[in-house]
Amino acid sequence: MPRETGEPRSSRTLLSVAAALAGVALLVWQIRSVGLDQIAELLARVRFGFLGILALSLARFTLRSFAWITLIGEDVPLGRAVAATITGDAVGNMTPLSLLVSEPTKAFYLGRGVKPSRALAALAAETFLYSVTVAIFIIIGTVAMLTTFPVTDAVQWAGLVALAAMVTVLAAALWIVWRQPAVASATLARIPLLKLDVLAAKVRDFESQTYGFVSRSRGLLRLVFTCETSFHLLSFAESYLTLWLVTGRSLPLEAFILDTVNRIINVAFRVVPFKVGVDEMGAGFVAPAIGLSPAVGVTLALVRKGRLITWAAVGFALLAKRAGRAS
Which of 26, 147, 265, 295 has the greatest count of CB atoms below 10 A from its CB? Predict the structure, then answer.
């Protein structure tokens, strides 16, 4: 891999720090406006239920990892794929570059017998199929919120924007599957004054591999979509469990809507490390619209943040262990 100059790396570091500081400031403001004592009281109710939340999130990692190695089509140990997924997510959550660093990290961590280009192409295809299910999930959750609860004008406007964006995503996905455009390679080949034909050919090969994975047999794709759908069902289960631990009530529809809000934030604010501040802001903003206090929404987001940080620690430990073996 080519070495980077100090300037780009320094720029990315400054961007990461700026995004993190902005998120922390937003988080502090949100907690102060809601009330630290109230949030602390709600967080205390989670206790050992956090282990159940971690178990559900581990199952979610496993489902997406299984979908990935299913597309690869080679004999790859599921445990190694899960470790690669956890490691890549840890790296991606730490930087505004998100997918640009998380996906290559997963592919290179997998290693041993699987070409990084093949692993990355299969991962790109899995991410594409996952994105389609995310759009569907957000559409269903947003429609449920807008048709069930008497939301404010601001929440309704935000919901309609989310709906329009996800419909656009689905339309774009259908177009990509139909036309299979060589966007990246064609762009590289047309850059004036630079001879990038070799690089463009490699990128085109990668695009062809990715489209090949997306266009595989219906039975295989059905299995992958089942994994992606199950991933979302477990995500809902995680939100439901957290909401039940915090409120002591069974609130399936409210949990589904708050989980949808988290999906929207994950899409819209990838550049913010760990979604610090924006996740809490979004959940605190929507919670009153569905009959819950802002403190409940913020607490739900903070528990989710604890889960992210826990798995990030595991991911960096795995990465350090792998680096130690390589040295």
Answer: 295
Secondary structure, 3-state, 217-260: CHHHHHHHHHHHHHHHHHHHHHHHHHHHHHHCCCCHHHHHHHHH
Q: Quote the CA–CA distance of 51 and 33 in Å, as a whole number.
A: 29
Measured distance CA(126)–CA(326) in Å, rounded: 28
CA distances from 322 to 108, 109, 110 (A): 11, 8, 11
Distance, CA of 217 to CA of 299 (rounded, Å) = 43
Check whether 13 has a pLDDT greater than 70. no
- pTM metric for this prediction: 0.88
Give the whole-number percent of the chain exceeding pLDDT 70: 88
Q: What is the 3-state secondary structure (H, E, C) of the chain?
A: CCCCCHHHHHHHHHHHHHHHHHHHHHHHHHHHHHCHHHHHHHHHCCCCHHHHHHHHHHHHHHHHHHHHHHHHCCCCCHHHHHHHHHHHHHHHHCCCCCHHHHHHHHHHHHCCCCCHHHHHHHHHHHHHHHHHHHHHHHHHHHHHHHHHCCCCHHHHHHHHHHHHHHHHHHHHHHHHHHHCCCHHHHHHHCCCCCCCHHHHHHHHHHHHHHHHHHCCCHHHHHHHHHHHHHHHHHHHHHHHHHHHHHHCCCCHHHHHHHHHHHHHHHHHCCCCHHHCCHHHHHHHHHHHHHCCCHHHHHHHHHHHHHHHHHHHHHHHHHHHHHHHHHC
How many whole angstroms from its chain centre is CA 106?
Answer: 14
* Helical packing angle, 252-268 and 218-247, nearest 10°: 120
Residue 122 in tokens: 């299969």
Q: Give the residue carrying structure tokens 């979908």.
A: 67
Q: What is the pLDDT, as a whole number, of residue 251?
A: 95
Q: What is the mean pLDDT of the chain?
A: 87
- Give dist(CA 254, CA 42) in Å, integer: 17
Q: What is the chain's Cα-based Rg?
A: 21
